[in-house]
Design goal:
By secondary structure, this protein is mostly helical. The chain has a domain of 52 residues. The protein has four helices and no strands.
């Protein structure tokens, strides 16, 4: 049952965790959320605001993946990273199918005169 490591705190996966990454991730996420809040509270949404919102969301995801989840391609984290990368397409498919389903339901249930287009 022994893995060659007597003290559990000396295990490589435990050594990766530190409080600095969590704190930096939290602060960057707060800054990005404040930026996004500034975008959406404007009375008129500027045409380039959607690009800014998408960029802020992408940066937030990357920061949380790298700093919060500690995912990298090091030898101790490679299987966690591989499992995460395999889940991403399934997540995209699930979101896409949900959007398709609600679009089809909307098209079948809304009356022609009631549509807001």
């Amino acid at each position: 049952m022994g893995h060659g490591i007597e003290n559990p705190l000396e295990h490589p996966e435990v050594q990766v965790v530190n409080g600095r990454g969590y704190l930096v991730s939290y602060v960057v996420s707060l800054i990005l959320m404040a930026l996004v809040l500034g975008f959406v509270t404007q009375p008129v949404l500027l045409p380039w605001a959607l690009i800014g919102l998408s960029a802020a969301a992408a940066v937030a995801v990357l920061v949380q993946i790298i700093l919060l989840f500690q995912l990298d391609f090091s030898e101790t984290q490679v299987w966690t990273t591989v499992s995460f990368l395999l889940i991403v397409p399934l997540f995209i498919i699930a979101v896409g199918l949900t959007m398709w389903m609600f679009n089809a339901l909307d098209a079948r249930t809304m009356l022609a005169g009631m549509m807001m287009h």
